[in-house]
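Final report, Chapter 2: Outcomes

The project's central promise was a pipeline that accepts a single protein chain and returns its three-dimensional structure in a standardized token representation, suitable for archiving and comparison. That pipeline is now operational. To close this chapter, we reproduce one record exactly as it appears in the project archive, with the input sequence first and the structure output second.
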Amino acid sequence: MKNTISLASRSDSATSRLRADILGGALDPGALLAETAMAERFGVSRVPVREALFALEREGLVEFGTTGRAFVKVLTPQDFQELHTLRLALEPTAARLAAPRLRKDSSALERNLAAMRRAKSVRQITRLDLDFHELILAASGNKRFLAMWRLMRGELELWLGGLHRRHQIRTEHTLNETLEAHGAIIQCFRSQSATSCERLIRQHIQGWFEWLPTLEVTP
């Protein structure tokens, strides 16, 4: 039992460290993830590294080639289109379901907005942006909606983080626009109908899709 717990702990640690490297930009899309090299770097055997690779494959951050070697996921225009379509299918309905609960208590969204105002790095901005949307999914009370969101979150974070890193000059402007949009969403939950909240989230996601440089989808 002790060895099993220890292995699980090493696997979790390797997963966390590798996830941070990928999302933080330390590893480029398409980079080879050699098990032996990573095991030496993390100070573990190859077994925890292999488990970490499988876990991150499920999150959409790692992909395996035909030879079984692992690479950092490379997102394509088709991936971006599918993510957008899935967001449009999930989030407006989740907002409508979440509206009665968030009308009574939007404090979690408000804390997120306050944290985003204090954000200093691209990684923080990206994470808090996605956290905001996940809070709405969670407030919907639909566990399957939330599970589907979490399945695509890794790819969204990978793509958005890379986009912000490539466009550092625009990041401050993007942050201000995001703060304004999220503030309007909170106000809608506080005072408007569930249908209005559903419509606003749909417009928000569609505007996001139309504004982003969709031809540059590789982080």
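Archive annotation: The mean pLDDT is 87.
This record, like all others produced under the grant, will remain available to the consortium after the project formally closes.
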